[in-house]
Fold:
Amino acid sequence: GGCSSGYQLTYDSVFKALENNFRRFDTAEAEGWYCQEAVGTALRDYTAKRVIDEADKGIDISVDEAMLEEALENADDNASFDPMSAMGGMAGGMGGMGGAMGGGGGQMDEKQQRKLEREQERARKKAECEKDPSKCDEATARTMNKAPPRHEKISCASLRLRISSKIAPYDVTSSDNIRKHAEKTRKQLLGFCDMFSIRSAIAKGDGSMPEPFPLDVYYLHAPECWEGWHPKCETGEEMTMSLREAWEAMELVKKDKNAVKIGLSNVSEEELQDIIDFVKERWAKSMETGEPTNAIMPHVIQNHADPLEPNIDMRLLCQENGIDFVSYSTLGTQQEFNEEGENPVLTDAVVKKMAEKYERSEAEVVLSWALQSGMSVIPRSQDEEHIKQLSNLITDPSFVSWEDLDEIDTISIE
Structure:
């Protein structure tokens, strides 16, 4: 329902899922369909809660200000990284870093002067620390290996957050636009995570540049803007790039470090095969000429699959080319419901028999079938009990026997 009507519901659903140990979330930019703002806020607030709960009810922001200045100075060269907004995004839930944060820029001689001043300040603190350990601040103590034992820091990386999103086809109008959307979405969903990258760089004490915390997967939501696909797809011609051109831009999203992986959604086998051929052609040309290439095979395909329509041919094409397959609407929500308004997948006799046999819900049986068939799944739920139920799959995803999986395969109508 988008943010206008679904902000609180989205926020609550994501927060409840996080509390039940879900760490992978899939959303999209399509206006009115999703509320990425609520997802990002829930992720931030949950992470803040974990930091406060597990770090002595507070946040350790004891840092060497000289190291902070140096880290931020080095970050100036990374155009896609905004450390100030990254830390500011945490203020509501976690508290700001505080203090003066010298920016980068300026002439080379000014940087050299600041570097000299930093080195002198470090030497002064080190001498003071050696003379009287009681006056040794924690940042200096860490660089001298004299810091007391500390609890492992909570961060987006340690929580293993894996957040994916998609660009809508009506925004696929230029390479720059695709890259800007990826950067904007990364910051909206995970910008608060950059604070941890800054702190990690500071802790190293070597002036290394902090890197932005990336999306797990960034998808092209659809290969074209079919008329009626979305209210903004009015003519079917809003997507002004070919699929090959769009894929070249998606490759740059990964190069920009805004996503670990890139993928396609709602594509046909013919469309995927064309992109595979396109990538292989560029690889071959690079081998022949010795010129580098940005060509990247799609890491992930996200398409519909459920026991009635398991999308076997697409899954085989992905398997042959080392591409992961993520199933959406795995619980049958794409199917036509019967006259009683019942879901034909969850009410199938075979599925119900397996649910009774294993004393699990029909949804758990279907999702286990998908996981054991080599798919990843992205079930959607707003009900807390349903979320808790599905969390059982995190620890026990493979409870259906191979013989019973074969029986579930027999209900396919493909």
About this structure: Strands lie at 24-26, 162-167, 215-220, 259-265, 300-304, 324-328, 376-377. The first strand starts at residue 24 and ends at 26. Residues 56-68, 70-107, 146-152 have pLDDT under 50 and may be disordered.
